[in-house]
Amino acid sequence: MTTYLDRILAAHRAAAAADARPLGILIDEAEAQPPTRGFTAALRVAAGQGLGVIAEVKRRSPSKGDLQARLDPDALARAYERGGATCLSVLTDREFFGGSPDDLRAARAATALPVLRKDFTVAPADVCDARIMGADAVLLIVAALDDHELHDLHDLATRLGLDVLVEVHDEPELERVLAAGATLVGVNQRDLMTFDVDTTRAVRMGAAMPPAVVRVAESGIRDADDAATLAAAGFDAVLVGESLVTSGDPTAAVAALRRAQQP
To answer: Which tens digit of pLDDT belongs to each residue from 154-209?
Structure first.
């Protein structure tokens, strides 16, 4: 049976295969960009004061359809910043999530916050594009990559000055990312095969992460109670999209998550 992840990855790998741009030129352009804002560093600072919040600009999802298709990315980013968001995450996938690089540029220009390009990174050109469009961090999803790709893309991103959020779903994937040298690890509670959420996944995996790793819990985080549970499990930050976008008051919603303190 074809899954959500299968369809998304097939589309992204087809686009990567059709991309005829010389990689060397892209790398040169990426290396010429201004300094990044320090995504991981911001999360480390926030973790010393409570629970960090990576607030997401997200128009739609493959499983639920439109969340807020006409959202204004710069206005939403400013609302998140007023609520105390530590960083931003911006969906740039067009076909499945309704996002774009323009959403990222607008959100980043509207705030002083570091920004993650949230997308399905499968090729070196994707990493370069993230840097060129202004991202401060890039996402690598372990379930979408083999070990060779994981190491090479992580190394390229680091070379270009990007922080790397490496996303895992289980303990074997965690072993792979630690072997690749990852220091910023996200546990996605959403199964990318079915898009179902397991709210116990991050709590179970939190204890398996080395103390030096910055730990991020992703997906299925609805409110301050959920955030407090994850803080108690040792997470430094939460990445939250759907519940913030649909909250009606994203500033207050972020502020409530920020008040969820670590023990």
So the answer is: 999 999 999 999 999 888 999 999 988 899 999 988 776 666 777 788 888 888 88
Contacts of 190 (CB under 8 A, 6+ apart): 196, 197, 218, 219, 220
pLDDT below 50 — which residues of the chain?
A: 263
Q: Which member of 61, 81, 89, 167 is catalytic?
A: 167
Of 58, 61, 173, 242, the active-site residue reads 58
What are residue 239's DSSP bridge partners? 54, 218
56 is catalytic: yes
pTM summary value: 0.94
Residue 219 annotated in active site: yes
Catalytic site residue from 56, 81, 173, 242? 56
CA 115 to CA 135: how far, in whole Å? 5
